[in-house]
Specification:
Strands 1, 2, 3, 4, 5, 6, 7 and 12 form an eight-stranded mixed β-sheet that branches. A four-stranded antiparallel β-sheet has the order 9-10-8-11. α2 crosses α3, α3 crosses α5 and α4 runs antiparallel to α5. The chain is of the alpha+beta class and 376 residues long. It has two domains: 193 residues, Ribosomal Protein S5, domain 2, CATH 3.30.230; 168 residues, Alpha-Beta Plaits, CATH 3.30.70. The protein contains eleven helices and twelve strands. Helices cover 38% and strands 22% of the residues. One of its GO terms (molecular function) is galactokinase activity. Keywords: ATP-binding, Carbohydrate metabolism, Galactose metabolism, Kinase, Nucleotide-binding, Transferase. It holds the Pfam family GHMP_kinases_C. Belongs to the GHMP kinase family. GalK subfamily.
Length: 376
């Protein structure tokens, strides 16, 4: 296998890794100043990086064919295109924030499954950001407040360079997650809190069902949903939909009403889920997962036939609750399943996909894991 030394004719200065995430509940509310409850997963994107002193940037990936080379000054909105924009955009965002960073050689050696709704993009951004922080002595990665600044640079990379209108949940999770916990993110005031989440201790597992239908956040649909949410808030004279009531939502026009209804009800579901987890009643969140999926499928219209089937088949086989996770339009679903029924649920989902003529899904258990770190 071609490695860093073969590609760049020198050794890397180190290796950094950042996790993907599963959002337990709180979908498509991050850009509405809402509440989200994600957790980091064991699958990680790993980058090998070496600093340069000439301002050049060379990006390679073992998972992608399109390499990119340029200078720091070549990086900006829509440049570079493709996967390289997520990594290069971090350099651009840190420079724009006033940090002195130089060029790098970077190789992506391992990656969170691409397009599976597990936030491979944020994992790449955050592993790159932590590497740049270490290599150029920014001093941000060692404290929660510093990591929030790195996460902000990653959000800027995705919004301003790649052009995907994501809200920041993924980057915050990848940077700030704590093993054995979900992370309650308040997207209005920027605060976060670890919420105990150890499914195995409750005799449960979270199965991630990757439908293998790939999605792209920059294809326009995500941006349209975000624009509708912002338009609904403006129509109600509010800065966001965070504190809007269902009664107020009913006054909106038919185009905006279901989008706003999802936001309002999903934020309420997050509050309910956190209350249950804080009380040690994890097994009782299943109906909240089901209600979340129904809202995402019908009010927000970001599900797909494959995601709907994955959730339906998992519930029929014994899951306590199931829903799509991530941006939607493909990607993954999650199911909360008693440990002794994980094989049965996985088998039933695979059978349902085969009968429908869909590709066989990839199914794995997700463990609440730690955030980005240097690995060597």
């Amino acid at each position: 296998m071609t490695g860093f030394r073969e590609l760049f004719e020198r050794a890397p200065d180190g290796r950094w890794a950042a996790p993907g995430r599963v959002n337990l509940i709180g979908e498509h509310v991050d850009y509405a100043q809402g509440l989200c409850l994600p957790f980091a997963i064991a699958e990680r994107t790993v980058v090998e990086v070496a600093a340069r002193d000439d301002g050049r940037v060379r990006l390679r990936s073992l998972a992608e064919d399109d390499d990119w080379s340029g200078t720091l000054d070549d990086i900006g909105p829509a440049s570079p295109a493709g996967w390289a924009g997520y990594a290069a955009g971090v350099l651009w965002a840190l420079r724009r924030a006033g940090h002195e960073v130089g060029g790098i050689d970077l190789l992506v050696t391992d990656t969170v499954p691409l397009g599976a709704g597990l936030s491979s993009s944020a994992a790449l951004e955050c592993s790159t950001a932590l590497a740049v922080d270490d290599l150029f002595g920014l001093g941000l990665g060692g404290t929660p407040s510093g990591r929030r600044q790195l996460a902000a640079a990653c959000i800027s990379a995705e919004n301003d360079v790649v052009g995907a209108a994501t809200g920041g949940m993924d980057q915050a999770t990848s940077m700030l997650a704590v093993a054995g916990n979900a992370l309650l993110l308040d997207m209005r005031d920027g605060t976060d809190r670890a919420v105990p989440f150890t499914p195995a201790d409750a005799g449960l597992a979270v199965l991630v069902i990757d439908t293998r239908v790939r999605h792209r956040l920059a294809d326009g649909q995500y941006g349209k949903r975000r624009a509708a949410v912002e338009k609904a808030a403006a129509a109600l004279g509010r800065p966001s939909l965070r504190d809007v009531t269902l009664a107020e939502v009913t006054t909106l026009d038919p185009e905006l009403l279901p989008r706003a209804r999802h936001i309002v009800t999903e934020i309420a579901r997050v509050r309910d889920a956190v209350a249950l987890l804080d009380a040690g009643r994890l097994a009782e969140i299943g109906p909240l997962l089901d209600a979340s999926h129904a809202s995402l499928a019908h009010d927000y219209e970001v599900s797909s036939d494959e995601l709907d089937l994955a959730c339906w088949a998992a519930r029929r086989a014994g899951a306590l609750g199931a829903r799509m996770t991530g941006g939607g339009f493909g990607g993954s679903a999650i199911a909360l399943v008693p440990l002794e029924q994980t094989d049965t649920v996985a088998s039933e989902v695979r059978t349902a996909f085969a009968e429908a003529g869909y590709r066989e899904p990839e199914i794995r258990a997700a463990e609440p894991s730690a955030g980005a770190q240097r690995v060597s």
